[in-house]
Amino acid sequence: MLRALWNDFVGLIYPRLCLACQEPLVSGENHLCTGCRAELPYTDFHLLPPDQNPIGRRFWGKLPIRHAVSYLRFVRHGRVQHLLHELKYQGQRDVGTALGQLYGAELHAAGLAADFDLIIPVPLHPKKLAKRGYNQAAAFATGLSDGLKVPAGLTALRRNTNTNTQTKKNRAQRWENVATVFEVDDPAAITGRRILVVDDVLTTGATLEACGAVLLAAGAAEVSIATIACADR
């Protein structure tokens, strides 16, 4: 009783805010308010047959993948863009962890947890990691690990080149930018395992394709892909 009263008092002075809309959260809400939870543009791609999954089709003929899923649709100037901006540029790593937990629970409920042995985030170069202070994909991977009950290998992949931003590049330029920049830190930890590679946003898929190719070359049994959001091409 006293703890609840104290929490209510603290909440009046330092209200917890929804990560998407910045409105105060009420009792029982965590990370996202009920309104945003209801209105976020979910993809539900994990419920589709593989041949009907538009994310999976982006990798046809490029990379053999088991699952390709994305939690949300990226909509410019909407809640999703705000969430990603908070995650990448405002130091709000909890955004990635919270979304990972929510999505991981959904994937677990859909029976997908049994298809993964290890969750690996797309790595940042050490210089960019030092500047940002954390890897946003690793925050998402940590949340997914919690929701899926599948271990995460946060350092299993290494980025050996500090590439330029992908934002304004076309698909060919993006692939050229990342084709040879990733390395597997410990191949023995990869061999024979079913890997879920995760990132924040899927656009052309060049970065995830490069990571998946390296993991398969290192002996991974199969590769799947998951992102917080996907952008229309």
TrEMBL record:
Residues 10-42 form the Double zinc ribbon domain. InterPro entries: ComF/GntX_DNA_util-trans (IPR051910), DZR_2 (IPR044005), PRTase-like (IPR029057), PRTase_dom (IPR000836). Residues 137-229 form the Phosphoribosyltransferase domain. Transmembrane segments: none annotated. Pfam families: DZR_2 (PF18912), Pribosyltran (PF00156). CDD domains: PRTases_typeI (cd06223). Belongs to the ComF/GntX family. PANTHER family: DNA UTILIZATION PROTEIN YHGH. This is ComF family protein. It comes from Hymenobacter armeniacus.
